[in-house]
Amino acid sequence: MAILQAMIQKIGNSIDELRSQTERLNEIPPLNTSTCLICNSNKLVVTKTRKKNKGYSYRLCSCLKCGSQNKQIISTVSAIKNKNIITLSDKKLRRWYKPLTFIVNNNKVKIDKNSHKSFKIWKFIWGKKTEDIYNISEKIIQKDYDNGVFNEIKNSIDPVTIRVSHKLPVDDNVALAKLYFLYMGIKLSTTNILHVYVGTIQYKQLDEENESYRIVFKKAAIIPNED
């Protein structure tokens, strides 16, 4: 009788353990407060945790914003890039993201084309669309300026590093977007892109009415979306 009771108890414990494991699998994974190494979003969901025999544990997190996978040991130490991300670096970054200066007069942003060494290259490749590129760029910088992105820079003597992301809808300029997608190898079915760049910006007061900001791009990434 005692043996039978022990067997029943063991089976009951196994059922309880299986139920507990099933409930844990159905739980919503916790959001991590660290930031994604690819897009700097703090919306990371823990997908897996592991422990090494050497005494340290790590977890794999998936970014809800760009889909990249981050591997963390206490804090984020590595990341596997989302295969859809187009990262601009080295020659491509230097070719298209030359240092750029823009002037602000009465809170109105204007790009200084004379300071942009890629202007002639862009004009040769894009033709009449070059002006559209500058107009879109000025609108983006204007929005950042209005949102206070440059406040810290204005109060600093030294260059300040910033990371900025913009969601750019295709319908802002369909013809230019399609040309850009063809050049970058992006699917034409893309409806918008998340454009992320990291750069250092330095502020200079030109006179009582004008101020200038010069940005040197360090990294850039493009994340296509089809929503």
Describe it.
The termini are far apart. Strands 6, 7, 8, 9, 10 and 11 form a six-stranded antiparallel β-sheet that branches. This protein has a five-stranded antiparallel β-sheet with strand order 1-2-3-4-5, with no helix packed on it. About 2% of the residues have low confidence. Helix content is 32%, strand content 36%. It is built from six helices and eleven strands. β10 and β11 form a beta hairpin. It is elongated. The protein has two domains: 54 residues; 140 residues. The chain has 227 residues and is an alpha+beta fold. The longest helix has 25 residues.
Write the layout of secondary structure elements.
Blueprint: H1 2-26, E1 31-32, E2 44-51, E3 57-63, E4 69-73, E5 75-80, E6 86-88, H2 90-96, E7 100-105, E8 108-111, H3 119-126, H4 129-146, H5 151-154, E9 160-169, H6 174-184, E10 192-205, E11 210-225
Antiparallel strand pairs: 1-2, 2-3, 3-4, 4-5, 6-11, 7-8, 7-11, 9-10, 10-11
